[in-house]
Design a protein that fits this description.
With 297 residues, this protein is mostly helical. The protein folds into 2 domains: 56 residues, no CATH class; 209 residues, 3'5'-cyclic nucleotide phosphodiesterase, catalytic domain (Catalytic domain of cyclic nucleotide phosphodiesterase 4b2b), CATH 1.10.1300.10. It is 65% helix and 0% strand. It contains 14 helices and no strands.
């Protein structure tokens, strides 16, 4: 029989995202207290009222969501990153056509600032680019040439350029947009490589057998190894992107995603990722799966 507090939790989830309710340590204690009272008394009405009051106080005191837009400095860095890539990779001459550079810059920014994006936005692109450079800079990573770094960064820019939470072919659509960009800058020879790097972010598909794909895959998964508070904030943001799903559908999907990653022999494909990020990511995912499944795992 479903616990009577569940409907009230659903209503409160309109103020506090459901996943935050289950992952927040204070909320877990509130739920534990309530369940204990239900087992120890025949009349849980008073405790039920008290528990809801505690939930409401948590909602009133909930921290403000962090900004989802890059700082001015970060935006300047993105501009430099993008213009540098186009300058080095294109066959449009030196300097390349400003109209082409600006057209694609606008298309990328417009895509990553779509209203529904709370996680898959420019901040995510910044995090992925930083992770790419962290991985390339590690002594455990096979040497990556500057030219290959540019190819990984192109894939990083385009890997989520198409993002519709209601569809399951976003990576393929993003790869197609990347192909259009490469045609525009007269680099047809790079299409297969960039498409394979973008598709490397489609889980749980196999990582292509080259020295760049593991870096792209791990960079995209690097937020799984963020500190616990940042991991939880990302979960809240992703929940908002899937606002079209019911709570039950969201929980089922989130549990399946977390368990799918945990069931992999290795989450990360690079040596650095396995050594530095894997233990943290498994701890984050393990706790998420444990709490979302009611502590039964």
């Amino acid at each position: 029989m479903m616990n009577p507090i569940y409907d009230d939790i659903r209503r409160l989830a309109q103020v506090i995202p459901l996943e935050e309710l289950y992952l927040n340590a204070d909320v877990q204690q509130v739920l534990a207290d309530y369940l204990l009272h239900c087992h120890q008394t025949r009349n849980a009405a008073r405790e039920h009222t008290e528990i809801l009051d505690r939930f409401k106080r948590l909602a009133a005191n909930r921290p403000t969501q962090p900004e989802q837009s890059p700082t001015a400095g970060e935006m300047s860095g993105l501009v430099d990153c993008w213009s540098g890539i186009v300058r080095r990779v294109s066959n449009l001459g030196t300097p390349p056509s400003a109209s082409v550079t600006n057209k694609w810059w606008k298309r990328l920014v417009d895509a990553y600032t779509e209203p529904h994006r709370r996680y898959h936005n420019l901040v995510h692109i910044i995090n992925v680019i930083r992770a790419v450079d962290t991985l390339i800079g590690s002594w455990t990573t096979p040497a990556i040439s500057p030219a290959d770094r540019d190819l990984i960064l192109i894939a990083a820019w385009f890997h989520d350029v198409v993002y519709d939470p209601k569809r399951n072919n976003n990576e393929a659509e993003s790869a197609e947009v990347a192909r259009q960009f490469l045609v525009d800058i007269l680099r047809h020879d790079l299409i297969d490589t960039i498409v394979s790097l973008v598709m490397a972010t489609s889980y749980p598909s196999a990582v292509p057998a080259n020295n760049m794909a593991p870096i792209m895959r791990d960079a995209d998964l690097s937020p799984l190894a963020f500190p616990r508070t940042a991991f939880m904030a990302d979960a809240r943001d992703i929940r908002q992107e899937y606002a079209h799903l019911s709570d039950e559908e969201w929980l089922k999907g989130r549990l399946a995603f977390g368990q799918m990653l945990l069931d992999q022999p290795q989450i990360y494909a690079t040596e650095f990722g396995r050594q530095q990020w894997e233990p943290i990511a498994r701890a984050n995912l393990g706790e998420m799966v444990h709490t979302l499944s009611g502590g039964s795992k």
